[in-house]
Amino acid sequence: MLGRYELIGRLGEGGMGAVYLGREPGGGLVAVKVIKAQHARDEGFQARFRSEVNRAREVPAFCTAEVLDADPDHRTPYLVVEFVDGPSLAELVRTQGPLRGGSLHSIAVGVATALTAIHSAGVVHRDLKPGNVLLAPGAPKVIDFGIAKAVEATSHHTRPEETVGTLSYMAPERLSPDAGRTLTPAADIFAWGAVVTYAATGRNPFAADSPAAIAGRILTQPPQLDGVPPALAGIVERALAKDPAHRPTAQELLFELVSGTSSPATTPAAGKRPWRGFAAAAAAVVLLAAAGGWAGARLGDTGQDKLAVVASRPSSSSTASASASADPAVARQSAKEIFDPLTSPSLWSPSGTAEEGCDYDGGALVMRTEFMITCENGPDQSFSGDMTIRVQARMSLRSCVNIYFRLSEDGSNGYFAGICARDVSVSYLNGYLEESDTISVNDGTLKPLKIEENGPHVLGVDVVKNSAKILVDGKTLLTSDLSRGKSTGARHTKGKVTFGVSGGNGPGVKVSLRDAHITVK
């Protein structure tokens, strides 16, 4: 017995304690989380634990295991939550393999919904991982939040290996010495990206042979997203951004996953949390809709006005305090970064004619041509050193997106990666098109990606010293040695970045670009 609960058997064990299947006096089954006794010896633990449990009680129970009881003053502190009779995501993938199609998308939406509700209650989960996602009938439920902060604040009394959280799903900022003081909900968004990658591939995006190697990859390497479907690869990659300011919020994740478009600017200023009503309404509608017939009996209680909120843009007054530097939907430029959602003229502006040029149409930068063009009116900023370039593209079977880098100010010299429906290549541009030298090409590798279906696909170039790696939807398709080729003359080591399009014979081709993101390491 523990308190008034009979412990029937152990369900699992983690860094914070053990979880037991319990029976309450009325006979109902519950899950009892027994906290390690060493935490109870900390003078401030009880107060922190009580505060976190009270916050956890505010989280709607439709997407989490409901908090039923807690005793932080017991000699062995414990927490009692709803027993969810279903396997964890970790168990499911381990026994049945990676998820596909609607099952995978439901996990992505369900966990994003839970995070929206958790964050709106002022709670940061801190230990989101596949083992903490339970697959209850109707929708996933996220468990084990509400005590993490209290335990983590005590962790300076514990051994290093007992740090709260699971290394493979920790955001880079969690690995810093002052992580406890700087941790924000963005750390859970990073973990969401890693969880969805695991669900899609059966592995963590930063998997390595040792804890030190995993930490090194989290801090310095791009995620390995091979196997994540194109419809999810872009948003997963943004969730796994090294800089927490570049990750979407849980609300934005939910909006994009449900609507299929990037979220409007909704990130509140640091330390502020308006929109709790919007978050709860959005989460409730999504989960009700996912629950099939049960939703029909409850939607009437929600009201059509709340349904409309999910699809509407927030008013300008609601976002007036938003910080542009932290909002992924706002264009920004610095010495180390360029980001432009490409939804309206900003860092890139229209150039050329409507029939052949760069313009904005339907909330995206659209480029049309019958041969080859470059979007000339882009940022003049010159980058040197290693860099990563990402852009989301919709393209037709005959079109190619050209990503130019280390480009001279007049646009006549530099490199470009050509990403087409049937091949990818890296070329050196020496004197406009008269001396375009193809350095390397990889034919036929894109056929399985079905670019002719119009995407969207996340296109990328990683430049490291004298090599350039081309990626589509997180999968590396070509690595090119920039020092090779037939052209003579000095190769460029710095320059601008911009985009272009080329096509074959016949009618003009069209591509649409969104979310251009350039960072220098």
UniProtKB/TrEMBL annotation:
Residues 5-258 form the Protein kinase domain. It comes from the Bacteria. PROSITE patterns: PROTEIN_KINASE_ATP (PS00107), PROTEIN_KINASE_DOM (PS50011), PROTEIN_KINASE_ST (PS00108). The keyword Transport does not apply. ATP binds at residue 33. The keyword tRNA processing does not apply. Keywords: ATP-binding, Kinase, Nucleotide-binding, Transferase. Pfam families: Pkinase (PF00069). PANTHER family: MITOGEN-ACTIVATED PROTEIN KINASE KINASE KINASE 20-RELATED, SERINE_THREONINE-PROTEIN KINASE YBDM-RELATED. This is Protein kinase domain-containing protein. It comes from Winogradskya humida.
